[in-house]
Amino acid sequence: MHHLVRPYENQLNPAIDRNDPEAAVTAIELQFPISFSGRAWKVINHFDGSMFLYAYKGKFVVTDEGLELTEYGDGTPESPYGAPRWTGNSLDELEQWLEQIADEYDAADFEIPCWEIEEPTNGQNNL
Q: What is residue 94's three-state secondary structure?
């Protein structure tokens, strides 16, 4: 599938790369493609405000509120651990990852706050 890459007009969430701080300013915050599946958008909406997409150093990077673009640190106070949620080469890979999260959340043996499981209708899945 072909997904349109659209940067945000205003880059409001400057990302962090503690391994290469000078390069971090080259990260471009992107909008999640509207062409993603409904299952992928279910995850994007669930994590609204806490999941961000960037183009950085030839890759796509999804990060959380920490805005970390690369893995860093060892967890000590002097070097706290940080990492992106996902890094990949294509938006198709990202869409598949998001759909996998939706599947895992639907199949969880415990309740996930604010996650609604879609019930099959007439023997078919609602996708």
A: helix
